[in-house]
Design brief:
Blueprint (H helix, E strand, L loop, with lengths): L1 H27 L8 H13 L1 H23 L2 H7 L2 H12 L7 H19 L5 H8 L4 H4 L2
Helix pairs in contact: 1-3, 1-5, 2-3, 5-6
Length: about 140
């Protein structure tokens, strides 16, 4: 469980940094209007034109692969709520890196999310591999033969 938590911590940090870089890079390039077909190409080209957007995509890819690893070790119902840590990191990056004004409503929402993350992290349920054996009627004695 500790390994999963540490990997999800790094994954959510990567996701938050990626999102902040995407936001910064896209705002520097101006607004995209998706109702205009030519803007779709501009959206795709923004990935290669802006180093901030490109690095944001790289950080989000890191998140994705770390998330896949965590899912291979633990339940979705444990891993997915922990990824909500990215909301905490995103709010902090928005405030201090992007210089956004964050209302007390948003900070309160972030605290509620934090409380939920703590509740999920405190659950020390069995790992998926441990339950699979129990579901098939395997016992410790069966595994020694």
């Amino acid at each position: 469980m500790v390994k999963t938590f540490v990997v999800i911590l790094f994954a959510t940090l990567s996701a938050s940094v990626g999102e902040a870089l995407l936001s910064y890079g896209m705002k520097r390039g101006g607004q995209i209007r998706l109702e205009e077909p030519s803007q779709w190409l501009e959206l795709v080209l923004s990935i290669v034109r802006s180093p901030y957007v490109f690095m944001g995509v790289v950080f989000l890819a890191i998140f994705f692969f770390l998330y896949l690893a965590a899912l291979s070790w633990s339940d979705l119902s444990f891993v997915m709520p922990l990824t909500a840590m990215s909301y905490i990191f995103a709010a902090l990056l928005a405030k201090f890196f992007l210089k956004e004004d964050i209302s007390w409503y948003r900070w309160t929402g972030t605290l509620v999310i934090t409380a939920g993350i703590i509740l999920v992290a405190l659950d020390s349920g069995a790992r998926p591999s441990e339950r699979r054996g129990a579901e098939h009627g395997d016992t410790a004695a069966d595994k020694t033969h």
